[in-house]
Input
Amino acid sequence: MARRRSVKFVDAAGLALPWQPHLYYSKFNFSRGTLLVSFDLRGGKGALPTIECRDASSPYRVSPCVSTQADADFITQFAAFLH
Output
């Protein structure tokens, strides 16, 4: 059931890259402190969503990263620079 504030991603035939479709949000305005990210995730049949928090450096650094496998297990990875 969609809520008032929800985003639905729908796969399409012929997408060039495996990470498409995707969403990019860059309105965070802080350089120190703690960021709390909270969401509910509902995946449809065959969906393998990945959620990554990245910085704007080049090459970018990713952490944390939450992904799913075909058996619906979650895998969470935190980069060394966060430890």
